[in-house]
Amino acid sequence: MMKNNGVGLYVHIPFCVRKCNYCDFCSFSDFDKAERNAYLSRLKEEIESYTTEPKIRVDTIFFGGGTPSTLTPGELLSVTDSIKKTFLISSDCEFSLEMNPGTVTREFLSACREAGVNRVSIGLQSIHDNEQKILGRIHNTNDFLQTVEWVKEAGINNFNVDLMYGIPEQTTESFAATLDTVLRLSPTHISAYSLIVEEGTPFYRMRNSLALPSEDEELEMVKTLEEKLSLCDYTHYEISNYAKPGFVCRHNLKYWDYSKYIGVGLCASSFDGENRYMNTDDRKDYISLGAAATRSVETIPLSMRAYEYAMLGLRTSFGISLSDYRLRFGKNFADGKEEKLSAMEKAGYLVWTEDNLKLTEKGFYVSNEILTQIL
Known about the structure:
- The protein has 375 residues and is α/β, with parallel strands linked by helices.
- The protein folds into two domains: 7-255, Alpha-Beta Barrel (TIM Barrel), CATH 3.20.20; 301-375, Arc Repressor Mutant, subunit A (Orthogonal Bundle).
- The protein is 41% helix and 21% strand.
- The protein has 16 helices and 15 strands.
- Strand 3, helix 3 and strand 4 form a beta-alpha-beta unit.
- The longest helix has 17 residues, at 215-231.
C-alpha cells in the first residue's frame, strides 16, 4: 500500500444549510452567528493546542463536515492561518475541502487557493431533480455544473465527485445518466456510495414508504459503475473509491493504512498508533468546556489493532503487507487461516503472495462476508 510519511489533519466544520434526509453525520443547520463564531474560536484554540517544538509535520489536510463551503472566505483563512502557525506543512501537502453545489462562490474558491486548498470534493449524489429532492439536497444539476466550472477556473484541477446509488426512485438508467454527465467533466476521483438508511435519520422514519431499488437493481447499478469507470481509466482502489492514475486520496489512505492522524472539531477523532481520541459530539460542551475537557481516550489492545489494520487494509486494492503485519503485531496473519485463504484464492476472491494479501475485484463485491471469515 502507498505509505504516507507525515501526519494527516482532519478539520470538522459542522455547519449545513439543510440536513439531508439520509445524513447521520455530526452536522447542524441551526448554528446562529454567535454560536458559529464561538465554535470557530474554539476550533482554532484546539488546533493551536498541538503546538510543539519541533512542529508536527502534516502532509494531508482534509476539511469535512457538514459543509465546509458554507464558511465565509474570512472564516476559512482564519482557520487555515491557525493551521499554518501550528504545524509544519509539507511542500507536497494534499489539502482537500468538501463542498456542496449551491454553497460555492468564486470568492470562496479564491480564498481556497489562497489558503492552499489543491483538491476539492463535490457532493453531487445525482443529477436528477426527483432524486435530489428525495435526498433533501439543496442544489440542482446546473448548480453542480457551475461549481465544477468555477473550481476549474480557480485552477483546482484535482477534484472528486460524490455519487450515491440505491436512492429511492432511482433506476439503473437514471444512475447511468448521472455517471455519463459526471464522466464528461473528467474528475480525477469519484466516490460512489450505496445508500444506507441509518437509524435516527428522516429516511429511517420513512423507511416503510421509501421506494428503494431492489437488490438486483442495485447490483446492476454497481456493474454499470464498474464498467463505465473502467473504460475511462479509473482504478477501483478502495471499496467506494475510484481514481485516475496518481490521484488516489492520500488523506483517506491515512485511515486505511493505519497511519497517524489528528482530528480537530466536533466529533473528530485522532489516532497515534496505539490510542484513539474522540471529541464530544455535544456542540455546547465543545464550545463551553473545550476539546481537552470533552475528549475521550481509548487505548486499543494489540489484538484489536491487528484486526483493524487488516480490516482497513483489505478494503483497498493495495491489501496488506504480511511482513509489516508481522513486524507490528508479532505474529503471522495467515497462521491458522491457510485453508480458508487458499480456498478463497482458488475461488478468485483474493490474491495471496509471499508478502501481500489483497481482495480481487470479485472479492470487493462480497468483502463483508470474506472479512468476517478471515479476521
